[in-house]
Amino acid sequence: MSALGERLRQCAGWRNASGLPDQASGTPPSCPTRRCSAYCSCRALRFLAREHPGASGRWIRGNGKGSSMSHASTVAVLGAGALGSAMAMRLGESGHEVRLWNRTEERARAVAEHAAGVTAVSAVGDAVSGASVVLTVLRDGDAVAEVMSDAIGRLDNDAVWVQASTVGPRNADALAGLARDHGVAYLDAPVSGSTAPARQGKLVWLVAGPEDVLGRARPLLDDLGSSVLHVGTGVEGNAVKLAVNAWMAASTVAMSDVLALCDDLGVDHATFVRVLEAGPLAMPYELQKVRVMDDASYAPGFAVQLALKDIELAAAAATPSPLLQAVRDRLEATVAAGHDNDDLAAVDYLRKPPSTA
């Protein structure tokens, strides 16, 4: 047995995956390697495929939510942007065979070069053919429609298309129609969360579609998310996502403006944060933006231009309120100032730190 095999033999994830007897209670012991996680499972499954192809049963420790019986699947991830790349890497580490496609092939190759279980595929048809789940993570509805119009004829009959791009209800409905016309099982399933939660398996899925289709895709969704919320049977996922992102953008703009008020009032930001944390008004997402704004460190997370795109999708679906129009104006000004690819915290770019004189 190889050194890797000997090490993984001690690992609870490997023992359960291989079907080896463990202990009378059947409860997996702690991993002596202290790495019993998606990492161990992924490498264990590869070892099994090479040295124990007949082993039965695969026990995969997911993302801290307990064990579940699952089979590693072939997944096509279409879109190697920040979120799509993070999803692909997480799925590869969780034991799935991931085919990553991107219009700019070099970007997919750069991700696959350093990601376990991820292969860059140059042709989108080759990426989706034979995949049990096709995950679209592209910029907008037009991009998804263009890519899937070419690829949908190559999907297997039992494949599930998980449409995770934020495209708005109108585009989501058109994409659902494309799937329906081709007899493809479809989920409208955007996520709340960005690259860090994706890498940690802590996204929140906002899923709309038939329950049986959700059940077929559920193991993959669980590997990427801490919550899978079934919000409807049509395209309600994208409607909820627009509301969530409008709240996120509005609260970020509000935090910037309130920090400016603190400056004018002579209120220390640390004191302001401490007061919020002591009561029911604390919002973790915005509290972490305080330091980012104070440091003017806008490393890409959720880009300003994507927040603006989502506000505009919401405006196309419903006349914006005065507040949301003000948020839209702020996002447009931030993009015009050259912060389009910066984190949403860049809406604070005009605020000047209080004088130290």
What does this protein look like?
- The chain has 357 residues and is α/β, with parallel strands linked by helices.
- Helix content is 51%, strand content 13%.
- It has 15 helices and eleven strands.
- It has a six-stranded parallel beta sheet, sandwiched between helices.
- α10 links the parallel β10 (203-208) and β11 (225-232).
- α2 packs parallel to α3 (38-51) and α11 (236-265) packs across α15 (322-339).
- It starts with a helix and ends in an 18-residue tail after the last helix.
Instruction: Estimate the strand proportion.
Output: 5-15%
Indicate the mean pLDDT. 84
Helical coverage, percent range:
40-55%
Largest sheet report: 6 strands, parallel
Please give a handful of descriptors for the protein shown.
357 residues; alpha/beta; 6-stranded parallel β-sheet; 3-stranded mixed β-sheet; globular
TL;DR?
The chain is α/β, with parallel strands linked by helices. It has 15 helices and eleven strands.
Secondary structure elements and their pairing?
Layout: H1 3-9, H2 12-18, H3 38-51, E1 59-61, E2 67-69, E3 74-78, H4 82-93, E4 97-101, H5 105-113, E5 118-120, H6 124-128, E6 133-136, H7 141-151, E7 160-163, H8 168-181, E8 185-188, E9 191-192, H9 195-200, E10 203-208, H10 211-224, E11 225-232, H11 236-265, H12 269-277, H13 284-295, H14 304-317, H15 322-339
Parallel strand pairs: 3-4, 3-6, 4-5, 6-7, 7-8, 10-11
Antiparallel strand pairs: 1-2, 9-10
Helix pairs in contact: 2-3, 7-8, 11-13, 11-14, 11-15, 14-15
